[in-house]
Amino acid sequence: MEPEQINQMNEDLKEINLTSLSRSIDLTSISFFPNENSQVLSAIVKPSSHLKKLHEEVEKVVINVGFGSELKAYRPHITLGRFKDKDRPQYEFGIFEEPLKGKAKQLDVFESEFDKGKTEYTVLESFEF
């Protein structure tokens, strides 16, 4: 991203009324993401209406600064870890009997850079709820 795009994105994200959105999240299961063959282990978050609204608002900002919309379905999750070995052991996880409840307290915007087989993540900005 160009510095001007980052500045515009940060300004536009500041305009989203985060305090009007519920901060509660429900974790429903642990699984590999986006599918069972993936190397990413994630906690799956129930896609509540307030998370969908936040996603829509952030997507508008991202489109406004010059990035195309991802046409993938929104599937909220929390990345717990990654397996480096593509031939990782196979695991099965069940769905929780009751969702684990938690609260989100901020929206973090990351920049990712892939270099020499490794992805580096840098926090660009954090927005408190």
Structure explained in plain terms:
The chain is α+β, with helices and mostly antiparallel strands and 129 residues long. The chain has helices at residues 3-14, 49-64, and strands at 24-33, 40-45, 77-82, 95-103, 106-115, 118-128. A hairpin with a 6-residue loop joins strand 1 and strand 2. It is globular. It starts with a helix and ends with a strand. The model has no long low-confidence stretch (mean pLDDT 88).
> What's the end-to-end separation, in Å?
25 Å
The SSE string, one letter per element, is HEEHEEEE
Question: Tell me, what's the shape?
Answer: globular
Report the uncertain regions: none
Q: What strand order characterises the main sheet?
A: 3-2-1-4
Major sheet: 4 strands, antiparallel
Could you say which structural class the secondary elements and strand pairing correspond to? alpha+beta
Strand content: 35-45%
Percentage of residues in helical conformation: 10-25%
User: Mean of the pLDDT scores?
Assistant: 88
| Whole-angstrom Rg | 16 Å
Number of helices: 2
Number of strands: 6
Notable traits:
4-stranded antiparallel β-sheet; alpha+beta; two-stranded antiparallel ribbon; 129 residues
What is the strand and helix layout of this fold?
Blueprint: H1 3-14, E1 24-33, E2 40-45, H2 49-64, E3 77-82, E4 95-103, E5 106-115, E6 118-128
Antiparallel strand pairs: 1-2, 1-4, 2-3, 5-6
